[in-house]
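Apologies for my clumsy wording, but are you able to produce some protein sequence, whichever is easiest, and the tokens describing how it folds?
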Amino acid sequence: MAATLDKVYFSRSPWAKRLAKALADLSASGRGGAFTRGHVGVIRELLEDRDAGPRAVINIGADALLEFLRTGRYKNIYEKPIVGGESRTPTPERRQVDGWLELEKPAETYFAAVALGGAGVRFYGEYCMVLHPANVPGGTRLFDRDSYDLLLPPLAGRSDAGTRRLVATLRGTWDTDLVDMLLLKMLPRLPETHHLITSGQVSNLVMTDQEFVEVHLQGAIARNHIEEVRQLPEEAAVEASISQRRTAHQPPSLVELLWLSRRREVAQELAAHQLPYRLATSGGKGYQWA
């Protein structure tokens, strides 16, 4: 039997109404804390900033990024991309989830995630491609989580029709719902502190590990859609460590040498196409870029 879900969050009401109801319930219960409204105001201001606000990002491995940079064509799983020397195709699970999502044209849908600073979802690749806001139309569909969560408890275990009804409650669009959807997701995790939340904390709340809002982009993604490419500083630190060992006559392994070679190829291609490359962190009251 499917688990009972929160009736405010998993409702058919607009995200703005759900957020207002959740805030009212929090205040009435006395659990909100004196700074909750202040946190919400700070977060809303950050998320509505058109210059430094949320971006749609795609994480990608070095080989796939090199292919994209050289051909100018980013492929989704339905286009049978070559990854690690092998042609990849959609799994039965991917097809099942995409059916529940009711994607009109799965082969023309490209998945991204919402990020505010940072370097995206490292699990999907060490390089984070940031899409320029102009290439994310206002009507772009959102899903409030990784859609693969539909295969896991407590969302799993429903009939096909029941899952589709559940999916309908978790959808939104970029212009209309993004800010309210993110705020509602953040509410249970807002810090109980005696000072206002910082932008670094907000960045971590927008995307925590593999917890993120999914973006369903329609139409091909081209090189000129990319605003910049980001990586975590840890990646550069590993590269420096391997290079230093090499200089000190401590030979790296073949795997490490291949990894270094791929990174240098990526750097050359990014420079050739004049794409900005940054190391991203998100601490303190503002974003730090190295």
Observations:
- The radius of gyration is 21 Å.
- Residues 283-290 have pLDDT under 50 and may be disordered.
- The first helix runs from residue 15 to 29.
